[in-house]
Specification:
3-stranded antiparallel sheet, 106 residues, mainly beta
Length: 106
């Protein structure tokens, strides 16, 4: 097997400064991409992953795998990771943006 791909969006895992709160805004989500090696150990592949969405009018993709809510709706997030010789690993996830997740207008 070439490995596996796992997406994490656990807010506890995103608390880099240890203050108990995610280090992203309420309208943002930081993807953490782990590539599972043949020995079963996870390897952080967030910076190497290609992230895209089918509805950029609903969710925008920023550098480093950050997703930002743009408008209410549903979108599919696609994460692809090159394996160096074989076909890329790919995972798809549906994302629902509700009106309450968006920042209030100015």
């Amino acid at each position: 097997p070439q490995g596996d791909l796992r997406l994490l969006a656990d807010p506890a895992a995103l608390d880099a400064d240890g203050d108990g709160a995610p280090d992203v805004a309420p309208d943002e989500l930081q993807l953490v991409v782990d590539a599972i090696a043949s020995d079963g150990s996870p390897r952080d592949a967030t910076e190497r992953a290609e992230v895209s969405v089918d509805r950029p009018d609903v969710v925008a993709v920023l550098d480093g795998g950050r997703l930002v809510a743009v408008a209410p709706g549903e979108a599919t997030v696609v994460v692809r990771l090159s394996t160096g010789g074989g076909p890329p690993l790919e995972e798809r996830r549906r994302v629902l943006v509700e009106a309450g997740a968006l920042p209030a207008g100015d």
